Amino acid sequence: MASIALKSFIGLRQTTSENKSIVLSKPTTQTHRNFRINASKSSPRVTGRNLRVAVVGGGPAGGAAAETLAKGGVETFLFERKLDNCKPCGGAIPLCMVGEFDLPLDIIDRRVTKMKMISPSNVAVDIGRTLKPHEYIGMVRREVLDAYLRDRATTAGATVINGLFLKMDLPKSTGSPYVLHYSDYNAKTGGAGEKKTVEVDAVIGADGANSRVAKNINAGEYEYAIAFQERIKISDDKMKYYEDLAEMYVGDDVSPDFYGWVFPKCDHVAVGTGTVTHKGDIKKLQIATRLRARDKIEGGTIIRVEAHPIPEHPRPRRVLDRVALVGDAAGYVTKCSGEGIYFAAKSGRMCAEAIVEGSENGKRMVDESDLRKYLEKWDKTYWPTYKVLDVLQKVFYRSNPAREAFVEMCADEYVQKMTFDSYLYKKVVPGNPLDDLKLAVNTIGSLVRANALRKEMEKLSV
Ligand SMILES: Cc1cc2nc3c(=O)[nH]c(=O)nc-3n(C[C@H](O)[C@H](O)[C@H](O)COP(=O)(O)OP(=O)(O)OC[C@H]3O[C@@H](n4cnc5c(N)ncnc54)[C@H](O)[C@@H]3O)c2cc1C
């Protein structure tokens, strides 16, 4: 399945030549960046109005997309079915997201500087030892982060519609509009909402793993993990332990192909796990995760239980005509870590930038080639990250001995530094050749020991 994923991570197209330099700016009540863009073609001008784009889904992907579109002069409609949505999520975000998206520190519940990786035999390694004083992993509650990003989109000029997107009619001819059908919950007509339609020139599908926009363009399916999480309120004393500390548990008991976690939030911890291969066992795996952390969460009260699919790889199709998918709707969660918040916000922003650029600040019609520029940039920037994490998952999450080897390796400061730098800054960090060689030798050593251990265990179980 993973190899299919990587093969399908291709969406490159030729760009055309005409280059015009324009400045991205739209007067708003908020100050924002002006950045230079290069328009590369002359599509028809839209007259009497600006380009209209619908963003379906108000999570990190949709919020970031809508803000960028509105700032760039595009008439933007952001659809969100539930404005107080608590997306089931661990809520761990990398440091670079805080900077790149100008997130205020008061929406971050915890700054984690200690991350314990715990092996199947409960050997714990602190993998945060190489962090610099200003570095941390942010822990957010999604209801807080998502609402904040949507509010920013509103401030930038987007119209937020509290409504459920139902379906869309595709354009009947080149340049004619998409007609979106939705239930409008703004109009106070009871729970079902009022059926309405809106016409737009382009659509961004940011509606998550069960995307209806993806279905509308026959984007194809993806393999997915099911992730389960409980928010557990524990005593202040117990919370002290998790003040700036998160835990990751690996082992067949907590997940045959993923990891279990305890992530700290403002006044509770989020305890969860996920699996692709044993979805029917998810509750059993969750109980095992809770058991592993039992001493530290003892006496706690479960205040919320949540579960949701996590995509395993990009959809076969991510762009069709003037429709693009971003975030989970496109399938941008990394293997191994299950991380998707940053990639959602980033892909939403990148896609919106491509539309702003292609439309010359909302003045011209866009076409598929404009939207494909987003795919081209995305694949070029992040393909190596997805590939590396895919390989890591295959090597280290396949058996308990391999996981013991993985945790053993995590004790190495060089491994910690490389891992954290890559996670926090989303850049492939150039290594030191001597340390790389040492790491390779150590990895092989750990894996050989893991293999020997596996064989011994197999003998024992015969
Ligand atoms: C249990 C769990 C733990 C996770 N932990 C982490 C973590 O710690 N760190 C991390 O980086 N990632 C984590 N992830 C992954 C992360 O949650 C997703 O990758 C991320 O939420 C994707 O953002 P998105 O904006 O693409 O989609 P979503 O966050 O799913 O947002 C989609 C939005 O669209 C709305 N919507 C859907 N359909 C419609 C419709 N028809 N009409 C109108 N609105 C609609 C939804 O209400 C929702 O608000 C976790 C996932 C799970 C399930």
From TrEMBL:
InterPro entries: BchP_ChlP_pln/prok (IPR010253), FAD/NAD-bd_sf (IPR036188), Geranylgeranyl_Rdtase_fam (IPR011777), Geranylgeranyl_Rdtase_pln/cyn (IPR011774), Geranylgeranyl_reductase (IPR050407), MnmG_N (IPR040131). It comes from the Eukaryota. It catalyses: phytyl diphosphate + 3 NADP(+) = geranylgeranyl diphosphate + 3 NADPH + 3 H(+). Coiled coil: none annotated. GO terms for molecular function: geranylgeranyl diphosphate reductase activity. Pfam families: GIDA. It is an enzyme of class 1 (oxidoreductase). SUPFAM superfamilies: FAD/NAD(P)-binding domain (SSF51905). Residues 53-87 form the MnmG N-terminal domain. Its cofactor is FAD. Its EC number is 1.3.1.83. Pathway: Porphyrin-containing compound metabolism; chlorophyll biosynthesis; Cofactor biosynthesis; tocopherol biosynthesis. Keywords: Chlorophyll biosynthesis, FAD, Flavoprotein, NADP, Oxidoreductase, Photosynthesis. One of its GO terms (biological process) is chlorophyll biosynthetic process. Belongs to the geranylgeranyl reductase family. ChlP subfamily. Catalyzes the reduction of geranylgeranyl diphosphate to phytyl diphosphate, providing phytol for both tocopherol and chlorophyll synthesis. This is Geranylgeranyl diphosphate reductase, chloroplastic. It comes from Forsythia ovata.
